[in-house]
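U., I forgot to send this yesterday:
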Amino acid sequence: MKKIILATLAFTFSLSLFAQEFEEVVVTGSMLDGNYYEMPAVTIKKKADFLVQRIRLVNDSRSPGLRRSEIRKTISNLIDSSRKVKGIALSYGEGFLVPVNLNDDSLEIIEDRKKSDTSYVNIYAKVAVNADNDAKDQINELRSFVYSARLDGRTEIETQGDVGLSIVSPEQYRYEILGKIAEENNKITEVVGGTCKITVAGLEGRVEWERSDISELTLYIPYATEITC
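Result:
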């Protein structure tokens, strides 16, 4: 029994690591401003993996079944169209994104409590960030894709907020950040003298991020350094 339990724990742990390694995180909101002074001294900048636009598909057909059918058909049309445009894809989720799959029960079509006979679903249209292309041009490409959607029945499409960013597996940058922190502390030691003691706390924390440019993120671990001389 003990061996079975240990094997189960190991399998669960490995699945957790797999999920962390391949998770895609969506970043919304404005670019870095007031949060700058709350960041630690050491950060790194990385291009986002995708520009993302949250969209809502709304349908007010009389029958709930017809509403779901027309929304699902519109999503299917979007998937077909995305396959014809390089770099365009569809995702679903709150905070963490997964590819849209019409066979996945987690893709929930919601009954609107504020409007009778109305259903909707929120998804993300996204385009892979290409460093060789102008980010504004890619945003225009993404918006053109959204606005050219083939809508089925009484389905309508609404954009939700500004174009955001997403990054895949931010934890992959952990040791790059830790290396930069170590370099910074070595420089501090050179400046203040080798007799001073440097203590660092918070390195066990997860990688965090803020949007710092139209297609760029600032990544960091929220650590604190204490110098005792």
